[in-house]
Automatic annotation (TrEMBL):
InterPro entries: Gprotein_alpha_su, GproteinA_insert. The lineage of its organism: Eukaryota, Filasterea, Capsaspora. GO terms for molecular function: G protein-coupled receptor binding; G-protein beta/gamma-subunit complex binding; GTP binding; GTPase activity; metal ion binding. Pfam families: G-alpha. It comes from the Eukaryota. Mg(2+) binds at residue 63. GO terms for biological process: adenylate cyclase-modulating G protein-coupled receptor signaling pathway. Residues 1-24, 243-262 are annotated as: Disordered. PANTHER family: GTP-BINDING PROTEIN ALPHA SUBUNIT (PTHR10218), GUANINE NUCLEOTIDE-BINDING PROTEIN ALPHA-5 SUBUNIT (PTHR10218:SF302). Keywords: GTP-binding, Magnesium, Metal-binding, Nucleotide-binding. This is Uncharacterized protein. Residues 246-256 have a biased composition (Polar residues). Residues 1-12 have a biased composition (Basic residues). It comes from Capsaspora owczarzaki (strain ATCC 30864).
Length: 460
């Protein structure tokens, strides 16, 4: 039998294989002592690395989740850079909130008070000429312009051209000329009192803080400004941290300084690279099929008030669409993960078959994050959850809306349990093999409870 030496595709081990010319099955050669040591080191490093892929429905908060991770674990210098990068995003969000107020003024028949001509010109510029560069998907021409200029997206945000920066500056100046107008304040107050903005908190927040956000030349966003900002998640974003891992103990029972840190990588594919798309999911699967158990986490974020938002299809809401997306994710991502083999399509991944006592590979954990919990209390009192999901057993159904604080508390508690079970059941019933599914309830603020949730998602 004549034997050939065949080298596998690039990997740290560069494991050699002996191939029989008359047989299609390769005979794996035993690695050398150096190769085995390198394999063990690589596998140990992989076991200490946790990858979190942040997915979500439109407006569900996947990009906000990545920002929360950055704010939690990034060093102060990186947090300052994040705040600086999001300054124009927040100003554009504030301009969008002014556009809502101007539209409401027309609906209510409210006019500007004093210097109407100049204020009307400023309003016309905002309504007809301003385009929020962070809410529109990049065009092919924009991508080409970025490449030619050597620009790259930062924090998943598109780089602004000098013309776009000038447009934002002009729009900000026009907003400042309108913000103190009595008619504008009347229309804004009407929106706040009618709770119209409760369906989408950022416009109301940005309008309340418009003077602070747009007045300063060197505006520095607060942490809350950054968390509440919104942009179209079209671009890939990734963050890497060294996170404390208090569960890591050495053999003597004490925690060493090296073991206290665990590498965490958080990825947001963005709409352009969505794992929900069938043509891209297989490529992503190859990255994760060889992961040790517990080192791969997938999050899916969606808003709890999405049940009040109509979907494109009649009779459905945005929450119905989110449930469908969860099921599609389980079918396209998880099912192939369990059936994939170490065959040719997975060539190029690290092979750890020679590592003694290697932990078994296992399914990634799906974390379903129900965001905007701070808005749910009001929405439950204005639109019945049972009118959208008849299976929901509403406390005191004959007394809607609830009239006492105790009744509201009971309604919120029942809704929390129902929504958590609704999404968990949808994931498990998608036809995929058994999954580890966890549901989290989250508000748009970096509290100690939210910080604990993020740590649990990444490290447990």
């Amino acid at each position: 039998m004549k034997l050939k030496l065949k080298s596998s595709r690039k990997s740290h081990s560069q494991t050699a294989q002996l191939v029989d010319e008359h047989s299609s099955a390769p005979v794996a050669a035993q690695p050398s002592a150096d190769e085995l040591a390198q394999l063990e080191a690589d596998y140990a490093a992989l076991c200490r690395t946790c990858t979190v892929v942040a997915l979500g429905s439109p407006g569900g908060g996947a990009s906000t989740l990545v920002r929360l991770f950055r704010l939690l674990w990034s060093p102060p210098s990186d947090v300052a850079g994040l705040q600086s990068a999001f300054a124009p995003v927040i100003q554009c969000n504030t301009i969008d909130s002014m556009l809502v107020v101007l539209k409401t003024m027309g609906q209510l028949g409210v006019s500007f008070v004093g210097d109407e001509a100049s204020k009307a010109a400023a309003a016309k510029h905002l309504q007809e000429e301003f385009v929020n560069p962070y809410m529109a998907p990049p065009t092919v021409e924009q991508w080409q312009a970025w490449e030619q200029a050597g620009l790259r997206p930062l924090y998943g945000l598109p780089p602004l051209s000098p013309e776009q920066r000038a447009d934002v500056s002009t729009a900000t100046s026009n907003l400042l000329s309108l913000i103190q107008d009595a008619g504008v304040r009347t229309a804004g107050g009407s929106l706040v009192s009618s709770q119209v903005w409760a369906m989408n908190d950022p416009p109301e927040y940005m309008f309340r803080h418009a003077a602070r956000i747009c007045a300063a030349v060197d505006y520095a966003p607060t942490i809350q400004d950054v968390i509440r900002s919104r942009q179209y998640s079209r671009l890939f974003d990734a963050a890497e941290f060294e996170a404390p891992d208090s569960s890591a103990n050495d053999s003597s029972g004490t925690t060493s300084q090296q073991q206290q840190q665990r590498r965490v990588i958080v990825l947001e594919p963005g709409q352009r690279h969505s794992l929900l798309a069938k043509h891209t999911s297989d490529k992503w699967l190859r990255c994760f099929v060889e992961r040790p158990a517990g080192t791969m986490k997938v999050t899916f974020s969606t808003s709890v008030v999405a049940y009040t938002q109509p979907a494109a299809q009649s009779g459905r809401t945005a929450m119905h669409d989110a449930i469908d997306q969860v099921q599609a994710l389980c079918k396209r991502l998880y099912a192939p993960l369990f059936t994939a083999t170490r065959a040719a399509e997975n060539d190029g991944l690290l092979e750890f078959s020679h590592v003694p006592r290697a932990p078994p590979t296992g399914p990634p954990t799906l974390h379903i994050i129900l965001t905007r919990m701070d808005l749910l209390r009001h929405r439950l009192c204005t639109k019945s959850l049972a009118s959208v999901f008849p299976d929901f057993h509403q406390p005191h159904p004959s007394n809607f809306p609830p009239s006492t604080s105790a009744e509201v508390d009971a309604l919120v508690q029942a809704a929390n349990a129902f929504l958590a079970k609704l999404f968990a059941t949808a994931a498990v019933s998608a036809g995929a093999p058994p999954l580890l599914v966890k549901v989290h309830l989250q508000a748009a603020i970096l509290t100690a409870e939210v910080a604990q949730q993020l740590t649990s998602i990444a490290l447990e």
